[in-house]
Specification:
Layout (H helix, E strand, L loop, with lengths): L2 H14 L3 E2 H10 L11 H14 L5 E5 L2 E4 L2
């Protein structure tokens, strides 16, 4: 369900090189054209779910740094 959304979030985090709040990740992904708000219904819900799910996995590509803030796992 959220593979393309997670991919967009990972791309933004990789490009920025620092932890970001999910709202900033969403904003940059939309501005850079990685997500299409017309093709991806409920972008907010999907990006939050994708980041939270990836952070919960021990082998996931992201980690939650603080409330709503995510970074690429080292």
């Amino acid at each position: 369900m959220s593979d393309g959304v997670l991919e967009a979030a990972l791309r933004v985090l990789g490009e920025e090189g620092e932890p970001l709040h999910w709202t900033k990740i969403q904003d940059l992904a939309l501005r850079r054209g990685y997500l299409d708000p017309f093709a991806t219904p409920d972008v907010r819900k999907r990006i939050v779910a994708a980041l939270a799910g990836a952070a919960r996995r021990t082998d996931g590509p992201v980690e939650r740094v603080s409330t709503g803030v995510y970074a690429l796992r080292r």
